[in-house]
Design a protein that fits this description.
By secondary structure, this protein is α+β, with helices and mostly antiparallel strands. Helices cover about 45% and strands about 20% of the residues.
């Protein structure tokens, strides 16, 4: 025989309602995060003496594809940075290319650029050959998603 303790049904109901509230808050937080811009830094390390060639090929073949994606609203902002001084070989990089995507979903989706490439580069054989060359002289390529903070919520109180 089962004995029903007073208030047990109320506690179970409270636990279920609390769980639903937490789940709802978590879902709302995820939805807000999905709509926030998402930043990735791309670091390129090129064989010594070949950076000028890499840079020209990047500007000629890769940048227009990224620019078209920016025109489509997928990318919010792009910028390139170059070190002024050199570092040791292990820590060296030649170009950091930062892309701010509209949101994290867009940054990670498998976007098919073939239509853009066909439109921008009618001579696909030359495009493919030049892209092959760009990767031949590339030693290392690292993609680093980053979180940025504009410091507006930082306190200046000592």
């Amino acid at each position: 025989m089962s004995v029903n303790k007073p208030g047990r049904g109320k506690i179970e109901l409270l636990v279920v309602l609390l769980g639903l509230m937490i789940q709802s808050q978590f879902a709302n937080a995820q939805d807000e995060a999905v709509e926030e811009p998402f930043t990735v830094e791309y670091y390129y390390k090129v064989k010594w003496g070949y950076f000028a060639e890499f840079y020209e090929l990047y500007k000629k073949n890769h940048y227009p594809i990224l620019k078209r994606q920016q025109d489509l609203g997928r990318i919010v902002k792009m910028e390139a940075a170059f070190p002024i001084n050199h570092a040791g070989e292990a820590d060296r990089w030649d170009m950091r290319y930062t892309i701010v995507y509209r949101n994290v979903s867009i940054a990670h989706e498998d976007f098919d650029t073939s239509a853009i490439i066909s439109e921008l580069y009618p001579d696909l054989e030359t495009f493919r050959s030049e892209e092959q060359r760009r990767f031949e002289i590339l030693l290392e390529h690292t993609d680093i998603p980053i979180w940025t903070n504009d410091l507006s919520d930082w306190s200046v109180d000592p």
